[in-house]
UniProtKB/TrEMBL annotation:
Coiled-coil ranges (or none): none
Signal peptide: none
Pfam families: LRR_RPS2
Protein name according to UniProt: Disease resistance protein At4g27190-like leucine-rich repeats domain-containing protein
Stretches with biased composition (Basic and acidic residues): 132-154
Annotated InterPro entries: At4g27190-like_LRR (IPR057135), LRR_dom_sf (IPR032675), Plant_NBS-LRR (IPR050905)
Gene3D superfamilies per the UniProt record, alphabetical: Ribonuclease Inhibitor (3.80.10.10)
Region (Disordered): 132-160
Stretches assigned to the Disease resistance protein At4g27190-like leucine-rich repeats domain: 3-88
Annotated keywords: Plant defense
Length: 160
């Protein structure tokens, strides 16, 4: 979406974006003519109650890169972010989500959620936690491979 299109969605109540492998952000920082805004944009989704983002492997943030957009979600009560492994932050600009109290981490399991002070902090926490878990799995696999190699050398078996 361009930021001008996003501003026109004032009556939108539910938004679901899923299975878009190449999408990197939901709201782009340009108008329909492709001109960048010099001043900050404020985009208000006044009636949006539910936002679901899932299976978006390239998504890095919801909004405008470069801190040019401020977002207000005065009615947002439910946010699902599932399998968005590269999402590091929700928005670089100012962000208001007064009714949001948690981020659901699975489309199918509403008991799997996270919350840490605000939306951006929560998204950053989830991203860093996922990266830490990935690194731990890599370390475990490496340790297992080293152990197998050591066992093979100790037993005199050929190294496979």
């Amino acid at each position: 979406l361009t930021s001008s299109t996003a501003r026109s969605l004032v009556r939108l109540r539910q938004m679901m974006i899923y299975s878009c492998v190449m999408i990197t952000e939901i709201v782009a920082d340009e108008d329909d003519q492709g001109d960048n805004y010099a001043a900050k944009d404020e985009i208000v989704f006044s009636e949006l109650k539910e936002l679901k983002l899932w299976d978006l492997e390239s998504l890095t943030s919801f909004s405008c890169s470069g801190n040019n957009c401020d977002f207000k979600f005065p009615s947002l009560e439910r946010l699902v972010v599932d399998n968005c492994p590269n999402m590091k932050i929700f928005s670089e600009g100012e962000l208001s989500t007064p009714k949001l109290q948690k981020v659901q981490l699975s489309v199918f399991d509403n008991k799997l959620w996270a919350w840490d002070r605000d939306l951006n902090t929560t998204i950053q926490y989830v991203y860093l936690k996922r990266k830490k878990e990935e690194k731990e799995k890599e370390n475990e696999k490496s340790a297992e491979a080293n152990e197998k190699e050591k066992d093979a050398k100790d037993s005199g078996s050929p190294n496979l």
